[in-house]
Amino acid sequence: QNNLGLMFLEGRGVPVDYTEAMRFFLSAADQGETFAQNNLGFMYENGLGVPIDTDEAVRWYRRAIEQEGGQKLAYNNLGMMYLNGRGVPADYNEALRLFRLAAEQGEAVAQNNLGFMYGAGLGVAEDDTEAVRWYQLAADQGEASAQNNLGMAYLNGTGIAQDYVEALTLFRLSADQGEAMAQHNLGFMYENGLGTPSDDAQAVNWYRIAAEVGSVVAQQNLGRMYSQGKGVPIDNLRAYAWLNLAAIGGDSDAVEQRATVEQSMNAAQVAEAQVLSTEIFERIQAGNFVQDE
Question: What is the pTM of this model?
Fold first, then answer.
């Protein structure tokens, strides 16, 4: 029944139907199936087939870990609730404990999260070397976010010797799995010639890929490339449109850069750029990735 629920959740062989997924998960969860209990927590946490209810999400995550052995992903998910204060008061120590329980069972997502806790000093003394150790364990399992985080450690030389070539390799592994921050970071590496010869066209390509899935910093950098004519011809219309999106997303650099670009545009051009920015935003929200050239 849990597997049937997953088929409806993910649209495998049947149309996506969150209500049906909930029905199967609930039936399996009531029989003590820990995977289904964890999945019910996920449904309530994200409002799939039911209104968002973080208290109910926490309840199901708890049920999934209460049985002997527990459900390792549920330990991680409950840890995230404690980390972010959703359905429970924020508690970094408890988040750390839960991440560790899952990580020590080999759960890659939890290993990455434990690395984050050590790197940020949340619930534990900051320890970049320990952060790298957990990122490496998760990255070795192919966990995309951990590959990006480990790449950042190699890029900056935090907890491990600086190595631009290794950073580039890890960013590419992560980017190829669709990790937007890694896609942006690949753009940064190509633009600045780190671990690879400088290539502005490749930088634009990777900034665009990340920008099209909503990365604010990638949108800012893509707009900047258009405004400077790096890797693409100068195009104030597209520069303004992307910088406007990034500015709305809270990027302060984009606000300043948008104002600079606007000085080279007349009122009609600004209006056109604002329309384009809205169109791009709507296509991103719909998952209809922009091809703006």
Answer: 0.91
